[in-house]
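Convert to structure. Protein one:
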Amino acid sequence: MDSLSYKTISIPTGSLEKDWLIIDADQAILGRLASKVASLTKGKHKPSFTPNVDCGDKVIVINAEKIAMTGKKWDLKEHISHSGYPGGQKRVTPREQLEKDPTKIIERAVRGMLPKGKLGSQLFKNLHVYVGTEHPHEAQQPKQITL
């Protein structure tokens, strides 16, 4: 067996085509939804997947305010952020975040599942989260994905 005949194929970024996908978050469990969205955004469902290239699709998530969590996570889970100054620590529960901006709940969950660094920032730009069923991407003719 010739070991040189098996080459790893890397797809150039210019030849990639991004599809537009739409996911309805109505009564979807947050973690399961976020892992599916992260996988679609990275492009792991494509045969031409390359880990160091942005080869994923653009994902639209609608009905962000209707997301579900199991157990008592709405009140017991806390997202902690720090401004860098003394006494600058902030704690927000998902219930409080739902009242302020429901899109941040899904965005934070998906961002944590994407790679860290420049590639993760580039992949995160392929995610669009909206409250309600209306979104400004009808011209792209997104395909409906069911979880």
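Protein two, convert as well:
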Amino acid sequence: MGNSVRLLVVEDDPHMREALNEVLSRGLVREVLLAGDGEEGLEMVKAHSPDVIISDLKMPKMDGLTFYKRAKELTSAPVIFITAYGTVPIAVEAMREGAFDFILKPFSMDVLEEAVSRAIRYLGAKKGRSPAPKEGPKGVNFLGESPAISKVKRLAERVAASKSTVLITGESGTGKEVVARFIHQLSPRKKGPFVAVNCAAIPDTLLESELFGYEKGAFTGAVARKPGKFELAQNGTILLDEISEMSPVLQAKLLRVIQEEEVERIGGKGPVKLDVRIIATTNRDLEEMVEKGDFREDLYYRLNVIPITLPPLRERREDIPLLAQFFLEKYSAENDRHFEGFTEEAMEVLTSYHWPGNVRELENVVERAVVIADEKPLLDPNDIFLKGRRGKESNKGAQGITAGMTVREMEKALILKTLEEVKGNRTKAAELLGITTRTLRNKLAEYRAEGEKFPWEEE
């Protein structure tokens, strides 16, 4: 669906406006509209009916919140706010008003691309082109009917009403963040913000300021006050994803935040009281890390008040048909394709596979099939690409892989072929490949250094 999306950027800084235009025009959306202030943005909403809106918050003539409130009378498009002047009251008000996401400057373009991709997926579901979840609160697709996943759902439903800290464990790709959002949406905090922080994706030198915020002048480059993720989650829920990757120094500071229910910005003169529900996730054995001295025992017990363990997909195989059909309809809608389901043989391939990457791997496999397969009613086994299994494309050498190639050459061929298929959209390519956008960016940098040129960047 991404290539059919019209996106509006409302930003008073011309340099930022052009930077956003350049990044978002690289195949992520069909058309990017630019407005220099809220008034011009409203005129463009009336004239062009954008599907997604990105807006600054602090602008002349009309601030971002006023623009948003007036734009809501004209459109239901998801709105992503960006600002260098964010404060907790503005962030909370934006989210209460229904903002889709809130990103503080400075931010990486990968973060923005991911937010826009999520908005596009949300848009497809909202227009009825993805099935509504059969269970769970609105907007959370926590799918599954197996005994193992039903047990998890019942536990999540029971703990949602409390403020107790939850520790969700499970292999990578099992859906830990989905469960966290499920709990939030069932809780009394559902009207408050849900703020997710990937502790593994942010360098230790930046994670402290991301979590706790800082005051203007606290260090070189701190040109304005920036509230941390804990403050942005006020009256809502904060998800600390991959908590096991947090450094010992930050573990100690997090422990104090949990104990005192307050946070102190870097360079701040006093603490800020918090009313935030904490959910942490990890794919590692924290008890073993505690025994080895790699994770604080006192923090572990503070986090592990309510433990929830997610089963791997191989232990809930009866959920595979439901999940596969959901992903098929979701990505068929996003890519304007018209697949109805799977042949019995294709479903047998899916249900018999061991799924080391769990639900995330299943999603990537189905999305890859939707993007690459020939148009027809049902996907067949030749459209399913799994580790150790060959589909029709590998038989034809469509991935550029031949006998005698090194593993690195095969990896490069697969990465470049995937990027070609998605017209250079790095976020989507990373999802299909099952890697992070950072890893993909580093691989591309290596290839550029070798003199590789990418056709999608020359179009």
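Residues 319-394 form a domain with the Helicase, Ruva Protein; domain 3 fold (CATH 1.10.8.60). The chain is about 45% helix and 15% strand.
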